[in-house]
């Protein structure tokens, strides 16, 4: 006596990646299975095994499956794909050479005569950064540019050249960012902290400087004003919550003080009040003999931090 037939399973070839209705039909998958609990719908007509948690790559592959040929992941979304997590990843940004207008609220598609330089179906990091200028503030654009350089996805010269050559919407923002990106920033918060000084007209610090000599290493400091021996350190939450990091910080700051270095510590909460940070750093500079102008909060400051900062 024959047993009951088993429930149909997804073929192995379809279990770890998005697949279309056409591909499902070709693999003999029934419409009932596609409607069942073992399959999730990513986009109408594109599916993924329910046991697989969708990643950004899955989501983008799903949308590319329903967008016209000649389409690539673009702008802020492409930056997120490359690991540069600045700005909102959605709505997903694409660029296409096709005559196409998306009606999906989760997708934005721009038209171009030709695609920017791509790796596969994703716009490369520098042209993605340039395209992202329409969605990012000047501050975010600099943070993202610094990140590309830090991650070795581009050189300083490549980032500056790409931003400087921008045309069209918000090209002035991109060109301004080109003059503000730097090598050496270890995080977006450090980029923001550096811009507090630059935008306020204070001396520009060097990034991530090793202090000491060939015989005695003192510390690597986030930002350093060498002429005045002032270190400016961004303190993330782990500096407070991790006991080992906190203990090492105490020793570090003792060593800096013994070497005559004045350390200014800045937290995430402090950065919400950038004028106060600029004033603190100016006070420290004056205490070390600085006789330059005080912080100013003119057009560059407002462009970077907004009119109300």
Q: Structural class of the helix and strand makeup?
A: alpha+beta
What top-tier CATH class of the largest domain fits best? Answer: Alpha Beta
Estimated helix fraction: 25-40%
Number of strands: 12
**Which shape, going by the Cα principal axes?**
elongated
Taken in chain order, the helices and strands follow as EHHEEHEHEEEEHHHHHEEEHHEHHH
Count the helices. How many? 14
Low-confidence parts lasting 5 or more residues at pLDDT below 50? none
Instruction: Indicate the mean pLDDT.
Output: 91
Number of domains: 3
Could you describe the largest sheet, including whether it forms a barrel? 4 strands, mixed
The percent range for strand residues is 15-25%
* CATH level-3 fold name of the largest domain: Endonuclease, Chain A
Could you describe the 3D structure shown?
The chain is an alpha+beta fold and 309 residues long. The protein folds into 3 domains: 12-57, no CATH class; 67-178, no CATH class; 188-305, Endonuclease, Chain A, CATH 3.40.960. 40% of the residues lie in helices and 18% in strands. The protein contains 14 helices and 12 strands. The chain has helices at residues 21-26, 31-35, 56-66, 75-81, 125-131, 138-150, 156-164, 171-178, 188-199, 238-241, 243-258, 268-271, 274-287, 299-305, and strands spanning 19-20, 39-43, 46-49, 71-73, 92-96, 107-111, 118-119, 122-123, 206-212, 217-225, 230-235, 262-267. It has a 4-stranded mixed beta sheet. Strands 1-3-2 form a 3-stranded antiparallel beta sheet. Strands 4-5-6 form a 3-stranded mixed beta sheet. A hairpin with a 4-residue loop joins strand 10 (217-225) and strand 11. The longest helix has 16 residues, at 243-258. The chain is elongated. 35% of the residues are buried. The model has no long low-confidence stretch (mean pLDDT 91). This is DUF559 domain-containing protein.
